[in-house]
Amino acid sequence: MQIILITGGAGFIGSHLTRLFVQKYPHYKIVNLDALTYAGNLNNLRDIENEPNYTFIKGDITDAALVNRLFAEHRFTGVLHCAAESHVDRSITDPLAFVRTNVIGTSTLLLAAKESWKQDYNNKIFYHISTDEVYGSLGETGFFYENTAYDPRSPYSASKASSDHFVRAFYHTYQLPVKISNCSNNYGPYHFPEKLIPLSINNIMNNKPLPIYGKGENIRDWLFVEDHARAIDTIYHNGKIGETYNIGGHNEWTNLALIKELCRQMDTKLNRAEGTSAGLITFVKDRAGHDLRYAIDATKLKEELGWVPSLQFEEGLSKTIDWYLANTNWLNDVVNGHYKDYYEEQYHKR
Ligand code: NAD
Ligand code: TYD
């Protein structure tokens, strides 16, 4: 019997991971602990919220008393740690929020797991979900490997790098059974529209400008979110304790090329004349310290555990657009809240 604590399960990746585990493993008990920050949304989990093997708890991972109590009450055998502050632009305006959740929150969970499991580490796993951004920024060539030296350059990536270091420190110092994965940029349904792809889909739907930072030459390596969740499932069950696995799609796009492809697909789907959406592209002031390029080498995951991405990017993007067009209620609910203030603050000064 596995009893798994998923943190941040009401967020983008966490909700896909929670759905996968609840549906694929009906004999596991899944407990989702989420503070429901601006990024957490219970509408992401409506289809599984009444499943008998699923429980939601609203709470903060920095609340040590709560976290310790949950470990005592539920006797978790595993942790899938997704909760985080996740947006680079927000980390530039409020770095301490990232230290709080990503560094202190992760350390609080590690301590609770160590205390709860110290009599018997057998069949326990603390799985930390991390990002390729900890490796820094690449030039025009090369890839991030599992042994690439950390070189974080934004407050977000610095806080994630720090959390990764704490996870490894708990492995080396206390032998806590940990696993870490570092994934490239995700996209797909339920993505909060502060990130490039869902923000642009929403703006195209509403005929609003598409803000491209700098010249749009920065490169990201995009992976469909369900492929990320599948990779985590594979590593959780078959990966080695104490190891790190890179996850990526070998799918690099400049921001400008990606937005042009998005515009092309949306013109077709919305029956707009070719070039209509691309006419909304607007170059705005660059992000401070903007990393040029991320690219993951995921050979280890492929060769050791047999994971490969299932979707080509054009197909994944098409599925994603279709989801947003079919789920305008979800989107309207999100953008009618504090999102408007955020958007005003981020984009009107650019
Ligand atoms: P998200 O911002 O969509 O969701 C984060 C979730 O964590 C939200 O539900 C939020 O309510 C919750 N949360 C935040 N602070 C909390 C706290 N103090 N206590 C409890 N819950 C809290 O993030 P995401 O994009 O789903 O990312 C999930 C994880 O995956 C993060 O660790 C992120 O670093 C990592 N990651 C993301 C990407 C990506 O492209 N989005 C890529 C690689 C890795
Ligand atoms: P984002 O989705 O924020 O992810 P990350 O910064 O974690 O890679 O941004 C993806 C890329 O798109 C990044 O190079 C910044 C750029 N970008 C824009 O050009 N305009 C925007 O409005 C946003 C949100 C991002």
Would you give an account of this structure?
The protein is of the alpha/beta class and 350 residues long. The protein has a domain at 3-187 and 225-250 and 294-311: Rossmann fold (3-Layer(aba) Sandwich), CATH 3.40.50.720. It contains twelve helices and twelve strands. It has helices at residues 12-24, 64-74, 88-93, 95-117, 155-174, 196-205, 225-238, 255-269, 299-305, 313-326, 328-335, 339-347; strands at 3-7, 29-34, 54-58, 78-81, 125-131, 178-183, 185-187, 210-213, 219-224, 244-247, 252-254, 281-284. A seven-stranded parallel β-sheet has the order 3-2-1-4-5-6-10, with helices on both faces. The chain has a three-stranded mixed β-sheet with strand order 7-9-11. It has a two-stranded parallel ribbon with strand order 8-12. α5 links the parallel β5 and β6 (178-183). α2 (64-74) packs parallel to α4. The longest helix is centred in the N-terminal third of the chain and has 23 residues, at 95-117. The chain is globular, with a radius of gyration of 20 Å. The mean pLDDT is 97. Bound molecules: nicotinamide-adenine-dinucleotide (NAD) and thymidine-5'-diphosphate.
The CATH topology of the domain at 3-187 and 225-250 and 294-311 turns out to be Rossmann fold
Q: How does CATH name the architecture of the domain at 3-187 and 225-250 and 294-311?
A: 3-Layer(aba) Sandwich
* Counted beta strands: 12
The amount of beta strand, in percent, is 15-25%
Q: N-to-C terminal Cα separation, in Å?
A: 52 Å
**Rg, alpha carbons:** 20 Å
Give me the side-by-side strand order of the main sheet: 3-2-1-4-5-6-10
Bound molecules: nicotinamide-adenine-dinucleotide, thymidine-5'-diphosphate
> What oligomerization state is this entry in?
single chain
Task: Provide mean pLDDT, rounded.
Answer: 97
Structural class by helix and strand composition: alpha/beta
CATH superfamily of the domain at 3-187 and 225-250 and 294-311: NAD(P)-binding Rossmann-like Domain
| Helicity level | 40-55%
- Major pleated sheet: 7 strands, parallel
Under CATH at level 1, the class of the domain at 3-187 and 225-250 and 294-311 stands as: Alpha Beta
The coarse overall form would be: globular
